[in-house]
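INPUT
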Amino acid sequence: MTNTIKILMATAVSAALLVSIYSAPSEAAGRDYISIVGSSTVYPFATVVAEQFGKTTKFKTPKVEATGSGGGLKLFCSGIGISYPDIVNTSRRIKKSEVSNCAKHGVKDITEIKIGYDGIVIANSRKSRRMKVSRRELYLALAKDIPSGVGESLKPNPNRTWKDVNPAFPDIRIEVLGPPPTSGTRDAFAELALEGGCKTFKWIKEMKKKDRKKYRAICHAVREDGAYIEAGENDVLIIRKLEANPDAFGIFGFSFLDQNEDRIQGSIVDGVEPTFENIADGSYPVSRPLYFYVKRAHAGMIPGIKEFIREFTSEKASGEEGYLIDKGLIPMPEDERLKFRRDGKKLTNLVL
Amino acid sequence: MNKQDHEARLNLIKSRLKIRYAKEKAFRAAGVTAILTALSMLAILFITIVGSGYSAFQQTFVRLDIHFDQEVIDPERSGDPEVFSQADFAGLVKKSLRKKFPDVRKRRQKRDLYSLVSSGASFQLRDMVMNNPGIIGSTKTVWMPADDDIDMYVKGHIKAGEKGGGRIKDYKLAWIKELSAGGAIEKRFNRTLFTSGDSREPELAGIWGAAVGSFYTMFVTLVLSFPLGVATAIYLEEFAPKNIWTDILEVNINNLAAVPSIVFGLLGLAVFLNFFGLPRSAPIVGGLVLTFMTLPTIIIASRASLLAVPPSIREGALGVGASKMQAVMHHVLPLALPGMLTGTIIGMARALGETAPLLMIGMVAFIVDIPAGIFDKATVLPVQIYLWADSPERAFMERTSAAIMILLAFLLIMNAAAVILRKRFERRW
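OUTPUT
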């Protein structure tokens, strides 16, 4: 038994030595791969490009983390150096406050690249009827407070069923599964769908000029009485729940609808069906651009950044028939593609 | 005592006995029901996981005759591997498919035709040429992984036509039928699942990268937590004075065992990444964070097994003149070691299944390359499961279940080892 202990001790000591030997060379070498953080909506696209990039070039495969747009920008803006990410993916444009936060930490030169568009769909199970809904009706169904109808006042959303929103709708309880407030998808849904519907009330629209803050509060607040269910960032889970509950609706990115069209159907919003073509030509109202941002200072520090941008903006990736399109990305029009390809090549500075 | 009295008392006892037996019976029944409920839940879990995951161990392959065209691969006959690697191997696959289905003319249909075979096929051909440049110029029959849509259709997970959401169009179905009639579609053992790293193409994705990452992380955890945990336990149990300080220490250690694991992740982010500047997403940091998590488990188990060694052993050793140190090291520790190892293995098994603390230190990431050391970027098995479960492609669903099965197998092996160690070496007094 004493021998066992000695052997164990010896293993532990030699293993500890091994650890310290390991550390010396790789610490000095720095980082030889690109580090990407950011939006979970862009993640499925960025990872495909990263994989292609790793396989077809001499560079290592970039590392992609899904931290959400906000979290990613925070990491991205915390400094210059190998311990900070080189690229951040976002499902919305960078905010002024984020740019100044970046500058405070020395991240001054940022290049903005738009990669394409993503539609946000509101879908339900194929087992039930396809819904035709307007943005105004979505606002009335999901907002926290809605106009009371008397003057310019609000009341807590009284609508329990879809029928309450519009008598033509079926008499089923409003039940919508969607992303939490930390998600870029939620921000975009609030801005495009809810605000789009809320603007149709004249007095609210006029408020935009007078009191922006209040206007946003009215238009972007989602009800918290159980009709809107925060289902986490896992869109696959939402789809499974929709299958189990044909009366429920779910909100997620177009790529998930595209992959699961045998199970779910996208609701028609403002008379437009969420299809690839309708999102691409801009007629589907709830779609938003996707971006990534690059730290210029890192381009000379980490190998392969320029080549990675070239791969991402290349015609074979984000062009009309690129491999990202097969994954559900909606391509930009040609002139926009050319602009961002140029920007990527020259690492043009961001102008807000 | 008269007879009547005796009779009445007997009856009273009898009736009470009945109630007591009934109570015992009810309690037993409740126990059995509890176990059966737990077992049936476990059975449901296993059946759903195995049921949806077993098909991932097979992958659909497509057979094509590939002509390794000299003009495409190496037109200048340089024989330079650098030139080979730049060649358009996808073009070779496309050419072979066009030859097989010469009637396909429309652009859209051609795209669908090319998507029968996985995009990884070109890399497979590239590796073939790199390994054996002699095949340039010849025509070879090659089995290549099919695209995930085809794979899902062949396995019966999605339907063709409109009913299947239009992912497999009717003409595509006709090609599949033609290919399988010619024996050119086959399901084979999915080796990729065990040998490659992550990929966004389900047919190319594997868990080996995550398994190696888990190995490095667990290695760091074991190397740090076992010696530290055992030493702490020995000192506290055998040498430390019993006073208010050691009491506070004990409360803290027990508390630590109940701290939610995400808190350790936040600690790791603040201390190891921000303060010590260790690399993000590296097994060294993952291992350090998980060490915090396993330490209390190991310390508590080790102290318990030291406590189980009877004092007579210590007294005997001291009685024949051993020093306190000798008594502990030569006599107490060997007897307590099996229990300590069991505790360690259980703690490690818990750490192996942990994702929450790793989120904070960047190990929840898409990483394709197999990690080469504890400072390389890496992910771990449970994170891989989480990432696959979150992927839109349908084929990742069965792969998620397959990965869960593999992780469960690892956990089962570790826990079985703990039981065996205990059974073989444990001594009872």
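end of record. Chain A has two domains: 31-118+288-346, 119-287.
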